[in-house]
Amino acid sequence: MKKILLVEDDEMLLKSLSYYLQMNQFEVLPYDNGADALALLHQEIEEIDLIITDLNLPFAGGQQIIESVRKEKKSKLPVIVLTASGIESTELEMLELGADEFISKPFSPAILLKRIQKLIGN
Amino acid sequence: MLEFSQINMSEFDLKFTLILIILVFSICSIIFFLATLTKRIFKIKEDKKKKLFQIEIDKVLFGIMFDQDGGKHFTVHGKSTLFKKLMIKSLIGHHDNFSGISAVKMEEFFVKSGLVNYSLSKIRSRSWVDVVEGMRDLSSLNYKKAYLEILKISFEGNDIVHQEKLLARIRLNGLQELHEFKSSKVYFNDWTQSNIIFVVKKHRVPNDDLLPDLLYATNKSISLLAIRLIDYYQDLSQMEALREFKIITKNKKLQAEIDFLLKVKTLPQV
Amino acid sequence: MTGISGIDNLIWVFNYFILFFAFLVMLSYLILAYLSARGLRQYLKRNRFVNYKALLALENVPSVSLIAPAYNEGKTIVENVKSLLAINYNNFDVIVVNDGSKDNSMEVLIQSFQLVRTEMTYVPYIPTKNVRGIYTSANPAFSKLYVVDKENGGKADALNTGMNISQKPYLVCIDVDCIMDKDVLLKLAKPYMEASDSKVIATGGVVRIANSCVIKAGKLIDVKAPDNLIARVQVIEYLRAFILGRMAWSRLDGLLIISGAFGMFDREIAMKCGGYSTATVGEDMELIVRMRRYMIDQGEPYTVQYIPDPLCWTEAPESFKILGKQRSRWMRGTIETLWTHRKMMFNPKYKILGLLSFPYWFLFEYLAPLVEITGLLITFILIYLSIVNWQYFVLFIALVYVFAVFFSMIALYAEESTFKRYHRIRDLLKLAFVALLEPIFFHPFTVYASLKGNWEKLRGNKGWGEMTRKGFDKKTA
Questions:
Q1: Residue B32 domain-assigned?
Q2: Which among B248, B252, B191, B250 is positioned nearest to B225, based on CA atoms?
């Protein structure tokens, strides 16, 4: 089973997405803040197959997570960024930072699933 | 000269009064302390209850959103007010987060489960707090049938009700709701404007072809709002109308806003 | 009784004077508490529906500079600056002013944030000590950060330097080691966006005590009652001041100070007034009084808004030594502000500010400790002359004690009815317990410290009273 690190501070979205991804046969590591997620990344990045992260997070933002991943050994680890709608300029910056996909909220779970499958298969 | 200290009666009264006041304060201290504890204990119990409810709610709602036929026969009949409140909150949360079929399913569930009746009873309440909550919930879950009833709501002089009413109307019926304010004296301050734009973004309110008309409103705060909305949608012909308006208008504040937004937009390309 | 009618009358008059003063104090406290409670209730009822996130939808929100002066804070500065940069807002920058630190603050900042010296020229609109350099980060992730390195000149001078550098219309001046609510700027900015006919010149937020709270990466995770007794009493003290006092003054439009630690204000007005005064140790309260006075003198309509939500958490002194320095400094600040603006006293031009707030401040903040001491001295004399009426003496003491406890209990109850930050029964019990002790071990000390402040003012001691802080890093480790 593929492992997904999910970082999102909206508790409701974190729960529902975890449920949805688990339902679709992924193992999910849910985190509600950037700092804890970063700590995990440092330790067991090898175990993780994909990261889904929100942009605005408490303690450490999505930008920091991507930056730190790109510095690690497993620098090609795919990252999907969830953004609140209407932050176009940030999206430009994010492309430069090297996120693989953007999904702007609100989004359809089916589309997220397709993007995940495109990046890492089932 | 009068010897004050010899008035024994007064001395006795004073002593007695002092003791009385001390007693009253002591008892009141204890009462306030106990009331604080009671409140906390009640709150802790309520939080526990909320947690249990939330588990139940999540199960039902996840089933509806992601499974083919989960939660079909669920009804809130007989559930407590706290449960209903929590469930509506979750519904709106999921509705805000997801688009597509999941969002539509949330809207349908709101009606089928009977939660809609709870919200309808709120907008008919005499307390403005309930009315605001009801309008917010009904419109956030896109219950179009409530539109006419919301339109009739009036609370003289209560700005929160007025603002929420306008937001609800925009959610349910789109930006055309703004046109009646073109020549009104209602001032849309930045706080109200940010709320309107937030609703437009969050609720994905569709663009309105007549938006450029609002630029020429006599109500200058409406013009300002129109500028911001056109900038949000970035529709080519509307942007053209915006540039045109900038040349025509003599209002410094509006010109400055257009400059600010256009500059913000072009910066990343430089 | 002595039997000598003159002295007996004097004692009688003295008794009644003290009694009258005590009742006046108690009554005013109760009235203020009542007004505050009503104001808070209304605020919370209206605020239930406020969605602060909506503010982020607007690109043109009031733009703000956060000014954070730092002196010898190398231990914690990086973490603190990071948490400032993480504040939830569209339009702000952070100006850290290194006030000639003797430690490695500057090196740590340069290294951690990849700072490079800019060519920006420093224009001292308000005169300050020399600026050695202005730095920005080479890393776009820290584009909002400015660091100013300057010669040591004290807190007011550092704040003025930040004010000179800022290009934004609004300023928030804070201590770097404050733990800020992540929505702090949204909450402080909202009143500016709602303003229509009168200009908002300042908004102020509530400060709470962070000792023993769980803090992670510069964010408050869990609120607890402090283990240290001195810090714990200050929780009760702050609850009383902010929940039962400030709200009422704000409703009466007589809010003289935006809380000691922070507020957001209009940069232009502050600059027109000449910025922070380096001549006082109470520069934050003095500036706000000066700004209000300026607006009234100019005849411009204005408002000052108070935001009762806890927005900023700070570490309180845990020893009598540091507490004493802090309190005597506050007293000197009060004296200096009152003296500088003495023309406002009973001046109808300044309306409620001159007729009520100013005299109140004079009477209860400045004079009360002196009256207490005078009362104590007279009591000693009476004891020495063995003409003390012990029954009255005990009753008076008991009355004052019971009232103090009673008022603290109201504060605790008010907190539990409004912001509810203490989640455990245990913490509430701890706070209630310390409320019983406060009048015995804490209050006398604050009176002593106030006296010392008076004395130091007379002697002309201007020192700022160095605050040795434990630093938050210990708790995060």
A1: no
A2: B191
- H runs (alpha helix) in A9-105: 11-23, 34-44, 62-71, 88-97
Residue B115 maps to a domain: yes
* 3-class state of residue B70 by DSSP: coil
CB neighbourhood size of C55 (10 A): 26
Averaged pLDDT for residues C225-254: 91
**Beta carbons of A85 and B97 less than 8 Å apart:** no
- Nearest-Cα distance to chain A for B23, in Å, is 49
Q: Does C57 contact B26 at a Cβ distance shorter than 8 Å? A: no
* Type of residue found at C291: M
Q: Which residues of B touch A110 (CB under 8 A)?
A: 100-101
CATH code of the domain made up of A2-117: 3.40.50.2300
Q: Which pair of tokens denotes residue C361?
A: 């401040």
What is the domain range of residue B112?
46-139
How close, in Å, is residue A2 to chain C by CA atoms?
A: 30
Q: Which two tokens stand for residue B119?
A: 């919200």
Q: How many CA atoms are closer than 13 Å to the CA of C282, on its beta-carbon side? A: 27
Residue A93: per-residue pLDDT: 61
Residue-wise pLDDT tens digits, C280-313: 888 888 998 999 999 999 999 998 888 999 889 9
The DSSP line for C253-292 is T------SS-EEEEHHHHHHTTSS-TT-S-HHHHHHHHHH
B163 vs B214: CA distance, rounded Å: 19
Assigned domain for B15 exists: no
β-pairing verdict for C115-117 and C131-137: antiparallel
Contact between B212 and B179 under an 8 Å Cβ cutoff? The reply is no
* Neighbouring subunits of A (3+ Cβ pairs under 8 A): B, C
Residue C33: both structure tokens together: 């508490």
Q: Tokens 């056109």 belong to which residue?
A: B230
Say whether A35 and C216 touch across the interface (CB within 8 A): yes
Q: What is the least distance, in Å, from the CA of B62 to any CA of chain A?
A: 7
For chain A, the distance separating the N- and C-terminal CA atoms, rounded to the nearest angstrom, is 8
Name all chains with 3 or more CB-CB pairs below 8 Å to chain B: A, C
Choose the closest CB to B66 out of A19, A89, A106: A19
Please answer yes or no on whether C141 and A64 come within 8 Å at the CB atom. yes
- Distance to chain B for A105, nearest Cα, Å: 6
Looking at residue C336, its amino acid is E
Decide if pLDDT at C232 tops 90: yes
In the chain, the amino acid numbered C99 is D
Contact A35 C57 (CB under 8 A): no
Extract the tokens encoding B228: 């911001």
Please state the rounded mean pLDDT for residues C336-346.
Answer: 92
Cβ–Cβ contact C393 with B under 8 A? no
Place of tokens 């996840």: B62
Contacting residues of B for A111, CB less than 8 Å apart: 100
| Res C472 pLDDT > 70 | no
Phi, psi angles (nearest 5°) of residue C107: -60, -45
CA–CA dist B264, B208 (Å, integer) = 23
Answer yes or no: do A59 and C217 touch at CB < 8 A: yes
ipTM: 0.88
Torsion of CA A90, A91, A92, A95, to 10 degrees: 120
CB-based contact (8 Å) between C140 and chain A? yes
- What pLDDT shows up at residue C2? 53
Put the strands of the sheet holding C199-209 in their side by side order.
C115-117, C131-137, C145-150, C92-99, C64-70, C170-173, C263-266, C199-209, C302-314, C179-180
**Strand pairing category for C145-150 and C219-222:** unpaired
Task: Give the contacts of A60 (CB within 8 A, at least 6 positions apart).
Answer: A33, A34, A35, A37, A38, C86, C217
* Chain C residue numbers touching A59 (CB-CB < 8 A): 86, 216-219
| Chain C CA closest to residue A93 | C140
Instruction: Give dist(CA C263, CA C307) in Å, integer.
Output: 9
* Residue A94 banded pLDDT, cuts 50, 70, 90: low
Domain count of the fold of chain B: 1
